[in-house]
Amino acid sequence: QVQLVESGGGLVQAGGSLRLSCAASGSSFSINAMGWYRQAPGKQRELVATIASTSSTAYADSVKGRFTISRDNAKNTVDLQMNSLKPEDTAVYYCYCNAFNHGWRNYWGQGTQVTVSS
Predict the structure, then answer these.
(1) Residue 101 pLDDT
(2) ∠93-99-104 over CA atoms, to 5°?
(3) Measured distance CA(99)–CA(106) in Å, rounded
(4) Which 3-state string (H, E, C) describes the chain?
(5) Taking Cα atoms as reference points, which of 88, 99, 107 lies closest to residue 41?
(6) What is the pLDDT of residues 46-103, one digit of tens each?
(7) Alpha-carbon dihedral angle through residues 101, 107, 110, 111, given to the nearest 10 degrees
(8) Cβ–Cβ contacts within 10 Å for residue 3, how many?
């Protein structure tokens, strides 16, 4: 099994910044992609940003230019720097990774709340 633990959520005013961090742990696993999804109340979970083991990245159009994803392959961590936050960024943010541990599958963190006040 692979466990993901997130940190860094909270309450911030519009225009502010937050940094989310996620660490993967477990035994005998290999990670391909890592990233972040979010889910706002009454809405479907959506991809925010993803980063491959090669460090290539992809972002949702709504966060391009404001959010930056990065990872440390040696530490199995992924961070999301969120700048110029807007009230519509308010959601529960979930870390995920696509990892091999007796087969490839996606693993999810427990989620961390991000609230942006106007």
Answers:
(1) 86
(2) 120
(3) 6
(4) CEEEEEECCEEEECCCCEEEEEEEEECCCEEEEEEEEEECCCCCCEEEEEECCCCCEEECCCCCCCEEEEEECCCCEEEEEECCCCHHHCEEEEEEEEEECCCEEEEECCCEEEEEEC
(5) 88
(6) 999 999 999 999 999 999 999 999 999 999 999 999 999 999 999 999 999 999 988 8
(7) 150
(8) 11
* 46 backbone φψ class: left, alpha, beta (φ>0; ψ -120 to 50): beta
Contact criterion met (CB below 8 Å) for 115 and 12: yes
67, β-bridge pairs: 82
Structure tokens at 53: 């083991």
Beta-bridge mates of residue 8: none
- Of 65, 70, 63, 60, the closest CA to residue 86 belongs to 63
For residue 28, pLDDT beyond 80:
no
